[in-house]
């Protein structure tokens, strides 16, 4: 859903999902799709955000970005900038975007790569391509200008990952002790979470402090299916 005002986002990485008005398949038109990607790259070049990954589906888009301005303003530029240019350059009339959007701050490196995989596989799961790199409007396809993670985000997320992993390991050890098990039985349990998105055990998150990714992706699906 639309994020509450939060000021400057402090170079945090966000996974964003936004839909077209009434889920219309506006981006089946290649002209519309190419224009959207031009807008996305335009504000990247202006330094409004770092663009890490994206996919443009017929009726919605997903992006992984690090805003250098507020998250709300970054989304206003992308959605509003596209609407303005679609009207001016393509003569499109009518509503384009659903007003709300879904956002999720990426908590650690593993979550980042799970969102990246989700983005890359989205067209394949929808039957729009056989392989991620075959889809024309996705960062999985070679040739797009993308940004790596900022060093501050890498360091912060790596520290968070380590802290969460340590916390989870300690919790597992306490559980093992309470059941009278030797700690040598605990170590394999720390690695039991399946790394592909949407496949994590219901009783485990990837690194303790974050909810299971299956829960996150269920929330995205619910957002995309809402009226």
Largest sheet: 4 strands, antiparallel
Shape-level CATH architecture of the domain at 14-149 and 211-225: 2-Layer Sandwich
**Shape, per Cα inertia axes:** globular
Q: What fraction of the residues are assigned to beta strands by DSSP? A: 5-15%
Written description of the protein model:
This protein has a domain of 151 residues: Transposase IS200-like (Alpha-Beta Plaits, 2-Layer Sandwich). The protein has five helices and four strands, in the order E-H-E-E-H-E-H-H-H. The two termini are 13 Å apart. About 21% of the residues have low confidence.
What descriptors fit this protein?
227 residues, 5 helices, 4-stranded antiparallel beta sheet, single chain, alpha+beta, globular, Alpha-Beta Plaits
